[in-house]
Structures are given as structure tokens and as C-alpha cells.
Description:
Oligomer: single chain
Helix content: under 10%
Largest sheet: 9 strands, antiparallel
Number of strands: 12
Amino acid sequence: MLGLAGPYVQITRENMPDVRGLAALQGLSFTPGTWVEGMQLNMGAGSVVNGFESITGKINVELLKPCHDGKLSLNAYASQAARLEMNTFSKHEINDRWSTATLLHASTRNLRRDHNHDGFLDMPLGKQFGFINRWKWTNNEGQEGQIGMKLTFADNISGQMDFDPARSLRYQTWGADMTTNRAEVWAKRGFVNLNSPYKTLGFQFSGVYHDQKAQFGLRRYDATQKSLYFNMIYQKHHR
């Protein structure tokens, strides 16, 4: 992410912790570029309002929202490295208070290549699927709310050219494979006093289930993460 990502950089999605825990290494790849509406960058130590990791910087990613201008977009990509990718965004306005948006991602890379003839894959093989459904509510009188869910599946293979995790003998052929299943839910609620707009109150909640099955050579690395996050923010600005 612009060369700034690292263990001491906080990465949030719409001001809620995103890339942390078991997702620290792969988490950036779980958000396709065509889903991104914008980013905010902070160099140096940042505020602890939305998390504690911002020691050397912060990256906040804003995704396409139900209030986005476009109603439907479709993006497809193919490269000579046999990477195929498809991304979609669609939104629907239920009424003047409710709107919803759906984002979909699917990609695969299954061509084995070894241009330098060292016996190892030049790039990992894999496939990935991502899905987001989100809803936004407003009463048009200073109150807003959001709810959403995100599902991610990723399967990656690397190692020697003839490595097959289902058939290869791992003490004869070196390889690594990792399968990730991740589910997230989140909710937001905000209040603005229209008579005193310099006073705001907001609530944030998210839950994450991350299951990882991996093996690197002869060493297994299976892990499961279950986490909950809640944050209440009150701001008052003096005029």
C-alpha cells in the first residue's frame, strides 16, 4: 500500500481496525482496488481513537458506499501471467432513508511458470473470492447508521513446480499452501445535534472470524481468530 504498510502502521477500513491479527500478512489483498473509493494517509504516530497500532503511520481505506454516485460497475482483468479477475459494484435505494450496496470479487491464477529455471514457481497459484453487502440508514435529521457483512475465501499454493498439496510427498517436494476463510460483520450509529452541530456521538462495532489452514514444508500452521471490537466516540468542538 504505497510502500507504507508494515507492522507499526495502523490499517483501518472506514475508521475501524481491519488488517490486524491473523490478517496482518494477507489482509491488504482482501480489499480489491476497484472497491476503494478513497484513502487517507497519516505519517508518524496517529490518534488512538480508532486503535492502538499507529506508531509510524496510519492508512484508512474508504470503500464504495450505498450513497455512491454510480449504480452499477463491472471490472474485468486478465494478464499474460494468467491472472483472471472480476469485480462488481451495485447499489439500490430502497427509499429516502434506506439504501444498500453489494460488492463482489473473484480472481484466480493457475498457470505454473518458472522463467529463471530454478525449479520453483515464479508466482504463487491461487484463487480468491470476496463479498460485501452493506446497508445505510438516515433519518435526514442528523442520525445515521450502517450495517454490513464481508466474506473472504483465499487459497494459495507456492513452492516447487511439481508441488501438489493433495498428492506430493512433502519430505521429497517442498511446497506451501494456505487456505483462509474469513467472515466479518460491522455496525455503526451516529448522532449529530443539528442545533449544535459541533457535538457528535458515534458507536462502532465489528466482529471477525478468521480460520486459517496452512502448511510450510513439513511444518503446519493452523490458527483461528475470533475477535469483537466496540468503540464509542464523543466529540465536542468549541466555536
